[in-house]
Design a protein that fits this description.
Structural class of chain B: mainly alpha
Number of helices of chain A: 3
Shape of chain B: globular
Strand content of chain B: under 5%
Strand content of chain A: 15-25%
CATH architecture of chain B: Orthogonal Bundle
Order of helices and strands of chain A: HHHEEEEEEEEE
Distance between the termini of chain A: 75 Å
Number of helices of chain B: 9
CATH topology of chain B: Rna Polymerase Sigma Factor, Chain: A
Distance between the termini of chain B: 60 Å
Number of domains of chain B: 1
Number of strands of chain B: 0
Oligomer: heterodimer
Shape of chain A: flat
CATH class of chain B: Mainly Alpha
Chain lengths: ~200, ~200
Amino acid sequence: MIEDTDELTARIAGALRPLPFVDESAKARLLVAVAAERERDRELAVRRSFHGRLAWSVAGAAGLAAAVMVATLTLHQAPHTVASAPAPMASTAPAVQLAAHDANVDPASAPQEVQLVFRAPAAGHVRVVGDFNGWDAQRAPMAREAGTGLWSVTLSLRPGRHVYAFVVDDTLWMRDPRAPAAPDADFGRPGSVLLVGRP
Amino acid sequence: MTRNPLRLLRTAPPAIPDIPDTGDDSATRSMLVHAARTGDVRAFAALVDAYYARCLRFALHMLSSRSDAEEAVQDTFVRVYKALPAYEERESFEPWLFRILANRCRTAGARARRHAEFVDYGEVPERPAPAGHDDSIAWREEIGLALATLPEEQREAFLMRHVEDMSYEDMAVATGAGISALKMRVKRACDALRGKLMEVDRD
């Protein structure tokens, strides 16, 4: 048996043992990275399932193409949905294309434009994260409307239920106070539910 | 009085209602691991809370750079999340976690060494003299420097044994090395650290 502890070793270990300072924003980035990974897995599963369905319905391909055209026409005529607040926003709000436009897209999941509005007068910047952008805060910055304290962004989202949150100044993760709270928000963080209308 | 509206809306992290606090850390952590395996994201976040600081301590001592260490810890938990479905609960979670962490640190260390080969030595700043520091800070700095000179596998074994208080059995799981080899690595690390720090004392 090799003896590996003595007084000096114990002193060395004692000096190395204190836990380091934990930067909470690094921990937040970690959880966002894990959430993004989870979302990628979900998206892959959905794609696999969709392509599987396509393989079984080769005969329906022509009908699918016609349905895509109908859905596109309907979408062009549809008014914007204001999901969070009815306040009219300045035209400077960025339109962020988050739902992939794909020739293979299922017509039932054709994206619709949705405007999110959040009030945070003291914020330096606000971003929206959600299942629709892989919880990646870099992908959907919101624009400030001068003098009102409001921030907005217009997203192109597939119909269905989405969970999202606002990230204020890269550190503060907040749910939308004007939307229902999501009981299943990712990683114990606050989140809200957004329902994008289906016919 | 003006109040910051953001402060009013700040939300406390939600509790994890499904996981009872048994007062026993290891039992609570086992329940967290079990819940995280079944897809409970709040349990996974609680696991990150429970282990983040220890993982960061190990990575900092292995890599000597906060940004590299934080990145290694982040990679570790992303990989833990992806590998959880394949994790066998009869294994101990902690050595399994440290196996992934040690691998990430080795990869990050190799990347840092490759990068260092391209550094123009004329640009490397000299380390400032520790003048004005009190003795305990100077002592910790000397230990950090002595630790950094150890071969990677000795440093890793020393930290697991004497800082993380892991058993040799758990270290074998975490490193993939045999127990005798690990004892030898720890002994060599202790001898080298003693030698270097006694030299400092003599100076």
